[in-house]
Write a structure and sequence with these properties.
By secondary structure, the protein is α+β, with helices and mostly antiparallel strands. It has 3 helices and 6 strands, in the order E-H-H-E-E-E-E-E-H. It has a 6-stranded antiparallel beta sheet with strand order 1-2-3-4-5-6. Helix 1 runs antiparallel to helix 2.
Length: about 120
């Protein structure tokens, strides 16, 4: 299990998906709501997006021993947790932890060799 440190960057693929979904929601709301309700709904979408964008996020995963991993957050908080399950969905991988919420890792967040190692790790779990 050598070299099991994964440095995560921001995902542009996830950002594009979020923008497309927000555009679809706004288009549907524009067809169904009046103008002032549409403005309130768009403001709510923008505020919720900004709230989740500035949340503390995991920037590094590192293998310790057996199923123990360390999670380093953006604010340099280090947590130790165990992985319950890893699910590979092709474009992204979901990692379920014992104590932390699930982590979605998109394919553009890692370098290609790290992405392949994570996919192999997903098959092992």
């Amino acid at each position: 299990m050598a070299n099991r440190c994964f440095q995560l960057q921001r995902s542009y693929l996830a950002l594009v998906l979020q923008l497309v979904l927000c555009s679809v929601i706004i288009a549907v709301l524009a067809m169904t709501l009046s103008l002032w309700l549409l403005c309130v709904a768009v403001l709510g979408l923008v505020l919720s997006y900004l709230y989740f964008y500035y949340q503390d996020r995991i920037i590094q995963l590192e293998y310790l021993d057996q199923q123990d991993w360390t999670l380093t957050s953006q604010k340099q908080k280090v947590h130790r947790d165990q992985i319950k399950k890893i699910i590979d969905h092709g474009l992204y991988i979901i990692i379920f932890f014992e104590q932390h919420p699930p982590l979605a890792i998109w394919c553009d967040q890692l370098d290609w060799p790290d992405w392949k190692r994570l996919k192999v790790l997903a098959k092992l779990y």
